[in-house]
Amino acid sequence: MPFLKSSAFNVLVLLICGTHFTACTELITPLFPISYGFDDDAQGWEGSVGCKSGYSATGGNPGGYVYGIDDATGFWYFVASTEFTTTVRKAYGLQLSFDLEQSAIDNQADADDIIITDGTLTLTHKTSYNPKTIWTAYSVKLDETAGWKKGKVKATKAELQQVLQNLTSLKIRGEFRSGPDRGGLDNVSIR
């Protein structure tokens, strides 16, 4: 059985888990809070079809951030990394927070702001405001009280739990303007 350097931690693991160390460490290791500040790279996040995505080491809130530049018609999104998506599977009831900014606030257009799916069922969320040309903070609870929708109908607790537990994709809208634009994403976290 593998042991970590901390003998006090190992004793605690043995008391709680017995010889089932590998299965138990997931229960003991805290998953949250998790935060993506993009200070060194894009951390696996990228833009969807419809934009050219990239990473900037400066200009974030603070430090680095990921961005997308519109290169087609239709809305584009920031697509979460596989690591983040996998972690969100255990985040029912927690807060998804992030910062957005856009290059211009004229010609604003409406669309779903967050899209989550398990590959079978897709749920969406619309925030109450679009980002400004400066960093704008958002926080959305990952439960049925936050206004998640399945089509035009309010999503149920069971639907939210199903999608989160089997999550395959999480997207945050990066385009809010009809016409050419640029958008940025920073400080994505689950708490």
Looking at this protein, list some descriptive labels.
4 helices, six-stranded antiparallel beta sheet, disordered N terminus, alpha+beta, 191 residues, 31% strand, 13 strands, five-stranded antiparallel beta sheet
Give the gist of this structure:
18% of the residues lie in helices and 31% in strands.
Q: How are the secondary structure elements laid out?
A:
Blueprint: H1 7-17, H2 21-28, E1 34-36, E2 46-47, E3 51-56, E4 65-70, E5 77-79, H3 82-88, E6 95-102, E7 114-117, E8 122-125, E9 136-141, E10 149-150, E11 153-154, H4 157-165, E12 169-173, E13 182-190
Antiparallel strand pairs: 1-13, 2-5, 3-4, 4-13, 5-12, 6-9, 6-13, 7-8, 7-12, 10-11
Helix pairs in contact: 1-2
End-to-end distance:
32 Å
Poorly predicted runs are 1-29
Output the helix-strand order: HHEEEEEHEEEEEEHEE
Number of strands: 13
Q: Please bin the fraction of helical residues.
A: 10-25%
Kindly estimate the percentage of residues that lie in beta strands according to DSSP. Answer: 25-35%
Which structural class should the secondary elements be placed in?
Answer: alpha+beta
Radius of gyration (CA) equals 19 Å
Major sheet attributes: 6 strands, antiparallel
The helix tally amounts to 4
| Tertiary shape | globular
Mean pLDDT: 88
